[in-house]
Write a structure and sequence with these properties.
With 176 residues, this protein is α+β, with helices and mostly antiparallel strands. 25% of the residues lie in helices and 23% in strands. Helix 3 runs antiparallel to helix 4. The chain starts with a strand and ends in a 19-residue tail after the last strand. The chain binds adenosine-5'-triphosphate (ATP) and 2-amino-6-hydroxymethyl-7,8-dihydro-3H-pteridin-4-one.
């Protein structure tokens, strides 16, 4: 069983529910062993949109990297994520961040995830779960790499807010 870390993100509709739903669906084929805090984060490198909720999960799996990607993409599709969603609000986005110490670079799959170390919305929740994990092919731990991240990305814990003060950006419904 390999240890894996997946990044989950949602910035439309009932965001927190989508994160939970994704975990339930992922549990059909991977064993989730830990979950980070949920963070509310401003969209990075995409058109101005609703804030994201982001989190990281740790899991164990016997799926190979390509089979894991096929499975995470199936979950995204089943949850209703549209095909061409670049720069569009995301119902659910599932990124394979780390797969043990494996390094892979194919046209459809790069591991570690290519933008992992640049993104506070990934690094902060990841370090919560795996501060001492050595970044594949380096001598740096994830917490070392977090310290190198330039400041300025807006991110705050979401789980600590009382439930009735959390926004529910349900833009699928008409609020009159
Ligand atoms: N580690 C990875 N995890 C998930 N997808 C990956 C990974 N490496 C490469 N990909 C490829 O990236 C493609 C685009 O994925 P996606 O639409 O989620 O990108 P994005 O969310 O717009 O951008 P980003 O990859 O920067 O988060 C996928 O079809 C997949 O083949
Ligand atoms: N805050 C935040 N910004 C993003 C995110 C995300 O999950 N959170 N995902 C992106 C494309 O995958 C692009 N920008």
């Amino acid at each position: 069983m390999e240890i894996i870390y997946l990044g989950l993100g949602s910035n439309t509709g009932t965001r927190e529910q989508y994160l939970k739903d994704a975990q339930t669906r992922l549990s059909e084929k991977i064993v989730i062993t830990s979950c980070s805090t949920i963070y509310e984060t401003e969209p990075l490198n995409c058109l101005p949109q609703t804030n994201f909720l982001n989190m990281v999960i740790e899991a164990r799996t016997e799926l190979s990297p390509p089979d894991l990607l096929a499975f995470t993409q199936k979950v995204e599709k089943e949850m209703g994520r549209s095909q061409n969603s670049h720069n569009q609000p995301r119902l659910i986005d599932i990124d394979i961040l780390l797969y043990g110490q494996k390094r892979l670079n194919t046209p459809t799959l790069t591991i570690p995830h290519p933008h992992l170390t640049e993104r506070a919305f990934v690094m902060l929740p990841l370090v919560e779960l795996a501060a001492d994990f050595i970044y594949p092919g380096s001598r740096s731990s994830l917490s070392d790499l977090l310290e190198e991240l330039p400041p300025g990305q807006s991110i705050r814990p979401f789980s600590y807010l009382p439930e009735d003060s959390r926004d529910d950006y349900d833009d699928d419904e008409e609020n009159e």
